[in-house]
Design a protein that fits this description.
Elements: E1 5-21, E2 24-37, E3 42-47, H1 60-77, H2 87-91, H3 98-116, H4 120-124, E4 130-131, E5 135-137, H5 143-156, E6 161-164, H6 171-181, E7 187-190, H7 200-204, E8 214-215, H8 223-232, E9 237-239, H9 246-254, E10 260-263, H10 265-268, H11 271-283, E11 288-290, H12 297-306, E12 340-341, H13 354-360, E13 361-368
Parallel strand pairs: 5-6, 6-7, 7-8, 8-9, 9-10, 10-11
Antiparallel strand pairs: 1-2, 1-13, 2-3, 4-12
């Protein structure tokens, strides 16, 4: 596939409500979109980095810089015919920047699949028409506000709730939500690395609340600490930030640092590596689920395809569009009877509204192949 042109666009989408985690609050989603053009088709990708390096070391300005200065030129220099499967190898000399690499790979993959008439779901090896999503609820100013938000999402039809927690906002809020939802409703918590090994006894008190899992309580590098926590808790420990590749997933499972894995394609460098993480976990009977990064409809469509692979046994963070945005760059995804439809058309299966993208774009750049 000959890539003729690569365009970068930074769009800003206001959120329906502020989303607060242990590492910060977002009121607007600023996302880098990658648009590639070939003689046969166009393709779109999305970088899931945020404005600031709080969730990970990656952030938008750095992603923009590495894409425009290094990754896009390297891809265009890789030869006149580049397969989506070759993108990772072409970009491998540049260390890190997995989210930026994932966005470029997805755009190339989308263009390839559009040109061949194959859906991303079929290409990845998934199956099924619908995905059952959960919903992620941020930290609130009061427990009463939290309860109101959770009750509304339950009434909308979400069948799993994830609560963001941090020191000082954990046991009592979760206990109150458990009381609201009842003992059998799937409930889990996500700490986004907010705790340390000194908090293990405190975290172990979550066992009494009947949670599906506790996600990434300790620092991303602290696999041994997570292994110690897993030995002390009956609640399954799930890793998110720690899992940056199939190899790290294999290592974490081997030492007992987790019994569940959250797969985020951007965090591991792309949907092809995400599939490899899935395969590693499935071979070891470790359930996985698809994490979310406040994606636009581009990333949401790709996540829906990924979440139909057979090892995705738990509901993921793939909420309906109106959970986050009043306006998106694609047609909205809707929650119907507790599930969301998976796109089956070629590529990502969604059409990007170029007029909306251009209106929301605050920065743009393009690179064309030299003739």
């Amino acid at each position: 596939m000959r890539i003729e042109r690569v365009e970068l666009l930074l769009v800003e989408l206001p959120l329906v409500r502020a989303f607060r985690t242990s590492f910060g609050t977002e009121t607007t989603r600023a996302a880098i979109l990658v648009h590639v053009e070939t003689p046969e088709a166009e393709g779109w990708g999305e970088c899931v980095a945020s404005r600031e390096p709080l969730y990970s070391s990656e952030f938008n300005d750095a992603a923009w810089s590495v894409l425009s200065e290094f990754l896009v030129p390297a891809l265009l220099a890789a030869g006149p015919d580049v397969a989506a499967e070759d993108v990772a190898e072409a970009l491998a000399p540049f260390k890190g920047h997995r989210m930026a690499k994932a966005a470029l790979e997805l755009a190339v993959l989308d263009a390839k699949l559009r040109s061949t008439g194959q859906s991303l779901q079929e290409y990845l090896g998934g199956s099924g028409d619908r995905v059952t999503p959960g919903v992620s609820v941020g930290i609130t100013d009061t427990i009463d506000e939290l309860l109101a938000i959770v009750a509304a999402h339950r009434d909308e039809g979400y069948r799993r709730v994830k609560l963001k927690i941090e020191p000082g906002f954990d046991l009592e809020p979760v206990r109150r939500v458990r009381s609201l939802l009842g003992p059998d409703f799937p409930l889990q918590v996500d700490a986004n690395t907010a705790y340390s090994r000194a908090d293990i006894d405190h975290l172990a008190q979550l066992d009494e609340l009947g949670l599906l899992l506790v996600e990434q309580p300790l620092a991303e590098e602290d696999l041994l600490g997570h292994a110690e926590l897993a030995r002390r808790m009956s609640t399954p420990v799930c890793l998110d930030e720690s899992i940056v590749s199939a190899r790290t997933a294999e290592d974490a499972i081997e030492i007992g640092a987790c019994s569940v894995v959250n797969i985020k394609a951007g965090r591991v460098g792309g949907y092809l590596e995400a599939r490899r993480v899935h395969d590693v976990c499935r071979a070891r009977n470790v359930p996985v689920w698809c994490g979310g990064m406040l994606e636009t409809g581009i990333g949401r469509a790709a996540n829906l395809a990924l979440a139909t692979l057979p090892g995705f046994l738990l509901p993921g963070d793939i909420s309906a569009t109106d959970r986050y945005y009043r306006e998106d760059v694609t047609a909205p995804f809707a929650l119907e009877a507790g599930s969301i439809a998976v796109p089956h058309r070629p590529g990502l299966g969604v059409e990007v509204d170029r007029k909306v993208v251009d209106r929301l774009a605050v920065r743009r750049a393009e690179t064309s192949r030299a003739s």
